[in-house]
Every structure is written in structure tokens, then in C-alpha cells.
Amino acid sequence: QKAPEDMKLFFLKNPLDTCNDGTRAGYYLREHEGSKIFLLAFSGGWCCYSKETCDTRYKNIWRLMSSSGPEAERAGWGQLASSATQTAQHPSPPALRASQSMQRGALECALWRSSCNFKGSGTTAPLCISIGGPGHSLKEVFLLTSISAGGTGMLLDLERVVTLLEMLGAEAVQVRGLVDLGWFLDLKHPRQSDCSDAASSAPADAIKKGLRMWKRILLEKCKLKFKRVDEWQCFLGYRLYSSLKSPVFVVQWVFDKEQLRLENIHLGSQSLTEIQWNYLKNLGRELSNSQCAVSAVFAPACLSHMLITKSYWLEFQVKGISLARALQCWEKSLQSSNKAPKICMRSCPFHLIDNCPWPYCNPTCSALHDHGIGHEVNFQLALFRMRPDVHSQGKEHGLPTQVQRVTQSGV
Questions:
Q1: Active-site residue set
Q2: PANTHER family per the record (predicted)?
Q3: The domain containing residue 395 runs over which residues?
């Protein structure tokens, strides 16, 4: 049966379940009969931690804080799209066909919230009850997906969803998480002064400032690992991950453009200071290291932010494997976890991290767009302009030969 093209708007039944500004919380939903997957998607949008920063956030991205004036229907994006070209439902290529059940859920919806939403955690339970409780056929898998800062909120809510489904008599449902760019690191950053703007405040700074305001319920198992003053670290995916019982698949660019922007680093035509250059290299190294213990991960060495929301998300590969293929392998491994034989990771891998130390050393990366000059730029030339010494270090640090040749010639 063909799924409807657009997702339709619904509101939560309890008027006390609201957005930041007091308007009723809602979600977009598309039903597709016959699927065994229930897909719930949360959006991102960073956070705010004071009246001033929340006012700014409301002014700039009010859709993440309010349900006033929404469209009755909206098209899905990336993995939520109904288009076969975006959702890996082509009938021919095995790698694309295989992840069909992952991309085409029985119920697909997007809730207005971010991880730093004051009532975001509180609206998760009534949302699950509204569309996954009595009156709806139970599915085999409940997949929570999220993007950017919404990934933090999803990870914090994951085990609560498991408990809730058990209370609803649906303990047989398998709960899983798919987080896209919710893996912020608390590295020592190159900022010279504090910034009061939430949109450009470093992750650790924003979390520390907002912890009391959000009154977020943290996972008890994670809290026990830290002193009370350091409990804010449970908002960081790589700190929280080991406290989770449910399977999680992490999608993450090795060089996250948003984390670099929060540290006031903008790759393009501008030059980089020694501190910024070292931070860039350290970010890629530390992010890769932080995901070594993650059982399922897809991390291309590209400079970007968010992946599964892109219409061309199927094009990216790590070591010759697409995200659709990796998700299929992950799904098969979970299905066979209690059966024999188990999936061999060598023939069907789902732990994929680029090991090259430079942005754009992955040939499937999208072109670099420099907002300062308004068009795409050749990253190799941009790298040379930012760091004139890079060609002399290229061979030592693994810069591809063709890139060294370009930077040396300057053309």
C-alpha cells in the first residue's frame, strides 16, 4: 500500500502538554499499514538558557518553541520523505532495498521540540501514549530518531520510553535510537571571551548555564558517575552512551560544522590561527576516539551538520559502505542477537569511522559552501589559504597526494 505523500498535523490531547510559549504541543504523522517499524523523529535547534537567549531563540526559530500558525500538512525530509529517491526504497540495489523497513515506518512523525526544551521530556510520554497506546496496533520496533541537539534529548528519553511501553503492556516492543549529530564534545576551545548568545555559546557553557532553568530529568545511572557539580556532563552523548541499555546507532560527521561554529571557527576563505587549526585537528581525532566503544556508528570525515535530513543522504559512504547499508546490517544484527548464526561484521559492517585526519578526505563529501563569498569553494585551495604551511605537513599527517599537489601549485 502506498503511503500518503505528506505528514498531517495532530495535537496532543491534554491541553497541559505545551510548547515553550504555552501553545499546545503537536506532531506531524504519516501512517503506512503493514510496516513493523514505528518511527518517531525529534528535531534539533540548539537551546536557550536565560530570558534573553530564549527571547532571541523565539525570534529566530519560533517553530521550535511554539505551535502557533503551523501548516496542516508538511512534506517529510530525508529519511521521513515519502520519495523513494530519499528513503532507500529502490527495488534494485541491495544496499538501498535492505534498509526499507528502517526508513518507511508505520507511523512517522516530527515533534516540535529540542533537547533543551523545558517541557520536551514531559511531552514525550503523552506523545507515545497518544500514537502508540491503546487503539493502535503494536509494532515490533519503536525507533526514535533525532537530529543535532535533539539527539541529546532523545538519548535522555530513550530508557523512559522503554519503561512507558512496559507500563502500556508493550514490553515485547524493541526500542532503539538513531541519533544524528547529537555527539557534542566538551573540548578545550579557542574562545577568548564568553559569549551571551545561545546560538554561539560552546556546548559545555550552554549546558552549565541552562541546567537549573531546564529542570531536566537525568538518567540516574549516568548521574552516579559524576559529582553533583559535574552532572551536566550527562547531556553529552559520549558521556551518556554507556548508561543506556537500548541499542543506539550514532550518525556523526567527523568534523561537525556546528561544533566548529560554536567555537567561532568558520572554514572557507578566512585564515585560521594556530589555536583554531589545532582545535580542528583535535576535534576530528577526539570525536573518532569517543566513538570507538559505540557499537553502531557511521562517521564520514566531512565538514557538515546533520545527515539523515538531507535529500541526498544515501550518497554518503564510509569505506565504501552507505548509511542505508550500515543501518540494514545493524538491524539484522539486532534481529539475530538471540539466534544463530550471528551477523559477521566484516561482511556486513555497521561500525564505520573515517580514519583520515583532514576534512573532505572522503570523496563522497558535499562541496564546501563559503557563506562569506556566497558560493562553493575548492576545499583544498581553501585549506592552503587558511594554512599556508599545510602542504609541508601533508605527507606527514596523511593529506592525499593529489591534494598536496594542488596546494603546492596554488591552482
A1: 148, 256, 305
A2: CARBOXYLESTERASE NOTUM2 (PTHR21562:SF10), NOTUM-RELATED (PTHR21562)
A3: 378-411
